[in-house]
Structure of FAD linked oxidase domain protein:
Amino acid sequence: MTSRTDLLSALSGIVGERYVLTTAEDTAPYATDWKRSTTGVPACVVRPASTAQVAAIVRLCGDSGISIVPQGGNTGLAAGAIPDTTGSQVVLSLNRMQTIRSLDPIGMTVEVEAGAILQTVREKAASMDRMLPIAIAAEGSATVGGVIATNAGGLNVLRYGMTRDITLGLEVVLADGSVSNGLRHLRKDNAGYDWKQWFIGSEGTLGIVTAAVLRLVSVPRYSVTALLSVSSLEAAISLFGHAQQEIGEALSAFELISANSLDLVSRHAHLKPPITAGDWFILLEGASSLSGLRDAAEGVLAGGFESGWVIDGVVAESEAQARQLWALREHVTEAEARDGPSLKHDISVSLTHLREFLDDAEAALVDAAPGAGLNIFGHLGDGNLHYNVLFRPDHDQKAINRIVHDAVIKHGGSISAEHGLGQYRVDEWLRLAPESDLRLASTLKTALDPSGLLNPGKILPFSLLHTKAIRGVN
Ligand code: 2HG
Ligand code: ZN
């Protein structure tokens, strides 16, 4: 095993001494997640400037048996890019690799390095009258590589799909230090396995994404935003069906916000909804190159009133008012963090079973964690809720996670809809995933990272791979 001094000097030889961070002060921003709930101790942080440097680092670490934790903008909510506390893992930050290599407005693609900030790429696309359809609240810090590694979702999945659906090609550094170049700018490509999909959402455990080709769309010329309060979750779900009918494929967001969530936003961000409250609010958005959206949104409102689903509602009169309505939704995460500790559950359940899931989870939580608060909001149109529990110090956090996730699985859902497993959900995934899922994951991990040096402890803890510990999987 290489000494720390040898490691640091070899890394400096690859990237230059100033791009190997070693002091606690310099490495601190890379060692803690956004919520500051998980802090690791990296051996060092290395900041390569090119794919060739990433490959050289991976080869060096591979030869020395040192594990690597790849990191993008460090905006993840599951601690997937945070090292463990052993002081032995190298954090490999992609944040110097920010080049937008090409933007093709005719082929509607952008080729970009992994460390590029999402917002910068979106702005570049907008300057050429094109849109990169990945919309997440953290776009000002999140990187393209991080978004791909977590298969991020966000606010417009309803219309454009997950990051997986928007990624056309990848360049990946594999665990042996070789580079797989799949930077193809094609909509259709059935020549062999679609291997890029193995890496999207793999949280850096199978390879390190260094560049990507993403799909662009035309910028919608018209948009409409409306906020509605509804009488029940059933009313919200019925309203969704109605909105799909009225607004059709132009429906780009259908977000659910609980009255509790808006109470947090009002207390911590001093923003209030301009309409009478119900138990739930819906923020909907339509976007299209064709006109007539406003009439369609007013039709949704009128139909909602007629059916008794809607208590009150407003259709934004201006771009500024639309932004104010969106601000209510966008401040929920921050307001929750200011309020105190919370346990995040990023779940998805079919809309058909969502009511039963909520009833089961709440009934069990009342018994197990009396007095816990709930902050429920999310992407109702995708069946994806952020079911966040504001627990008290005397509550058993593990028991809370089990209750929520057991209810999710009972109703056929997923315990990670869009945030990934990270460190937070590995145990729960190992507990709940079908054995065949674990077997396939194990096969892939063993084939692509046989020494288990890429982001160990995330998704599939390598120490468990060759044991019977994962319920009999070899
Ligand atoms: C969102 O939808 C993000 O705003 C964050 O996915 C969710 O804070 C959360 O739990
Ligand atoms: Zn979300």
About this structure: The chain has five domains: 4-93, 100-218, 222-333, 340-422, 433-474. The longest helix spans residues 233-247. The first strand starts at residue 20 and ends at 21.
